[in-house]
């Protein structure tokens, strides 16, 4: 069932966002909006991306001019990430479409059930090691 729900999400996402961002890319942008200046390793952990995939997503967003990377002055082995003005604008522009994806995904449920579903999903995800 979860696989089918994921497929439905991907289908709705593609219709709403038309290839603007992938869900992982949007997750990276939204996380950086909430936590500017975090290091890449922490970002990958927060958005549940392995380091290789996370690095690829970050590099694509850097090339697109949506985020910037700088060395951590306190630990030169780390990179800190933040949104650019273009990244903030893109996130603001696409956020309503992402809200619509979630609304369409759960529209068969009454509002109280939607809230409960999200609370249960949050609880499941919070139990994941490293979160």
Automatic annotation (TrEMBL):
Keywords: DNA-binding, Transcription, Transcription regulation. Pfam families: MarR_2 (PF12802). Gene3D superfamilies: Winged helix-like DNA-binding domain superfamily/Winged helix DNA-binding domain. It comes from the Bacteria. Residues 1-126 form the HTH marR-type domain. One of its GO terms (molecular function) is DNA-binding transcription factor activity. SUPFAM superfamilies: Winged helix' DNA-binding domain. This is HTH marR-type domain-containing protein. It comes from Pseudonocardia asaccharolytica DSM 44247 = NBRC 16224.
């Amino acid at each position: 069932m979860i696989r089918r729900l994921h497929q439905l999400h991907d289908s709705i996402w593609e219709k709403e966002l038309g290839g603007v961002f992938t869900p992982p890319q949007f997750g990276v942008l939204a996380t950086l909006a909430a936590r500017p200046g975090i290091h890449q390793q922490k970002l990958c952990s927060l958005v549940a991306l392995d380091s290789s995939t996370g690095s690829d997503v970050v590099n694509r967003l850097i090339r697109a001019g949506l985020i910037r990377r700088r060395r951590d002055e306190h630990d030169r082995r780390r990179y800190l990430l933040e949104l650019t003005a273009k990244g903030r604008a893109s996130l603001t522009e696409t956020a309503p479409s992402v809200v619509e994806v979630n609304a369409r995904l759960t529209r068969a449920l009454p509002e109280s059930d939607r809230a409960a579903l999200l609370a249960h999903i949050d609880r499941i995800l919070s139990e994941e090691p490293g979160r």
